[in-house]
Amino acid sequence: MASLAALRAGAGLVTAAVPLPALSLVAAAAPELMTQPLLASPDGSIGGENAAIERLTQLVSRKTVLVIGPGMGMAPETAKFAQTLLAETRIPVVIDADALNMLAQRPVLLARGEIVRPGRTVVLTPHPGEMARLVQTSVAEVQASRLEVAQSFARRAGVIVVLKGARTVIAHPDGRVAVNTSGNPAMAKGGSGDVLAGIIGALLAQYPEEPGRAVEAAVYLHGLAADLALQDHEEHTLLATDVLNYLGEAFRSSARTGDGWVWLQGQPTASAGIQTRYEKEP
């Protein structure tokens, strides 16, 4: 789902790196998708042998952005591979799902600066449960202070934090915070986070000089596409992958002005629409 979302969001070439036993299934998802086989453990998960430097070098060769976590699993050898991949690469990275849980189990990886390095964009995309594990608190406490929790962690770790949920919070390392206004409850279904991770990766690849804006735009466009999808679907039946079919319309509903981004918010009709400025809170 993350790979398909990256393709739909404009990435030129997308490669899905998956364990060899799953390669044929993933390759069949879309003819445009490239694949990279990873050595598998006996249980089919990503094997630790993939952490060898020569394999990592081949894996990231000619890649400009890394998205890691969706469908990864938490097997010990898989975690070893993910940890080494994050530490040994320098390209921008979007960390989601099981990769976030791996970081929560090994907080020293962020504290020691093995992943966050000068000039590298690192984006973390936790839902409230993953955020709670990262900051070692309860989900209730995260939800009670979403903006403050995301802002504090982003500053301390030097990363961009996308705290998902109703009114997704995007916190930047310099303390700036944006609160997203698009989206609807249908996005609470499984797979929505994978789709968002792929969209963020695609926009980071296309706008490497504006990583903060790229992440904010990805969050908004994902929500807007979901809002547009409700013109043809019912909220209870909308799937995460259904939203991909409305990304094009979401992109067309945006325009660039001289003083910032302007988006057509909600579900536009032929007769009316509400235009709003997507602003950052001080």
Describe the structure.
The two termini are 34 Å apart. It contains twelve helices and twelve strands. Helix content is 40%, strand content 16%. The model is unreliable at 256-282 (pLDDT under 50). It is an alpha/beta fold and 282 residues long.
Named at the architecture level, the CATH assignment is 3-Layer(aba) Sandwich
Q: What is the count of DSSP helices, taking H or I runs of 4+ residues?
A: 12
Element string (H = helix, E = strand): HEHEHEHEHHEHHHEEEHHHEEEE
Strand arrangement, largest sheet?
Answer: 3-4-5-6-7-8-12
Q: Quick one: biggest sheet?
A: 7 strands, mixed
Predict the CATH topology. UDP-N-acetylmuramoyl-L-alanine:D-glutamate ligase
Measured distance between first and last alpha carbons: 34 Å
Total count of strands: 12
Q: Name the helicity range.
A: 25-40%
Coarse morphology: globular
Low-confidence stretches: 256-282
Integer average pLDDT: 90
Q: Which CATH class?
A: Alpha Beta
Provide the gyration radius in Å.
18 Å
**Given the helix and strand composition, which structural class is it?**
alpha/beta
Count of all domains:
1
Strand content: 15-25%
Within CATH, the superfamily carries the name Ribokinase
Question: Layout of helices and strands, plus pairs?
Answer:
Layout: H1 2-8, E1 15-19, H2 23-27, E2 34-38, H3 53-60, E3 66-68, H4 76-88, E4 93-95, H5 97-105, H6 108-111, E5 122-124, H7 128-135, H8 139-144, H9 146-157, E6 160-163, E7 169-171, E8 177-179, H10 192-206, H11 211-229, H12 247-252, E9 254-257, E10 260-265, E11 274-277, E12 280-281
Helix pairs in contact: 1-10, 5-7, 10-11
